[in-house]
Amino acid sequence: MVRENRGGDEPGSLVTGHLGDAAAEANLVMRRAPKTPNSKLSFEASEFAKDKGVFEPFHKACYKLFWEEGVDLGDISVLQGIGRQVGLDPDEMKNRLDTGHYTEQAENQYREALAIGVRGIPSFIMGRYFFSGAQPYGFFRQVAERIQREAREGL
Q1: Measured CA angle at 110 (ends 108, 115), to 5 deg
Q2: Which of 16, 65, 76, 137 suits a disulfide with 71, CB 3.0-4.6 Å?
Q3: Which of the two residues, 32 and 127, has the higher pLDDT score?
Q4: pLDDT band at 33 (very low <50, low <70, confident <90, very high)
Q5: What pTM, to 2 d.p., does this model score?
Q6: Alpha-carbon gap, residue 59 to 61, rounded angstroms
């Protein structure tokens, strides 16, 4: 399942507003994709990459290609290409995804996220604090400083 872009901006245009400001502050490029992919396959592919020890490069490549080029992360051939870039065996990845090897694990993680209150992405847990949505760097710094202060004060 693929959803058409729901935003008012044209595909390929830079993301604006709070999210665009946060991206620019972090020196990231974020363009409107032509479609919002169903992320189930990419999540399962990420679990495959994690098992193979290359989660971080796989995740970064997915992020970059989605936000900069608008690739469809719900397309197995796209995921195989990204996997190949980071040293994964694309045929093994396809086999694992086609057979549902990671489906139960992904569904369990999804249910766990819902149980702790995740309703959107990105979501973050820092210490005892939970928050959702793109946040500026300064916000993360404030939360980290609060956590450190609370630890020093024994709270």
Answers
A1: 95
A2: 65
A3: 127
A4: confident
A5: 0.72
A6: 5
Handedness of CA 46, 62, 139, 12 (dihedral sign): negative
Quick one: which of 111, 135, 106, 138 has its CA closest to 123? 135
Q: What number is the average pLDDT over the span 35-62?
A: 92
Cβ(35)–Cβ(3) under 8 Å?
yes
**What distance in Å separates the CA atoms of residue 2 and residue 53, rounded to the nearest whole number?**
29
What is the pLDDT, as a whole number, of residue 50? 97
* Full set of structural domains in the chain with CATH: 2-115 (3.40.30.10), 119-155 (no CATH)
Yes or no: say if 93 and 80 are a contact pair by the CB < 8 Å rule.
yes
CB 155 within 8 A of CB 43: no
Q: What residues pair up with 7 in beta bridges, in sequence order? A: none
Rounded to an integer, what distance in angstroms lies between the CA atom of residue 146 and that of residue 21? 24
**Coil, helix or strand for 4?**
strand
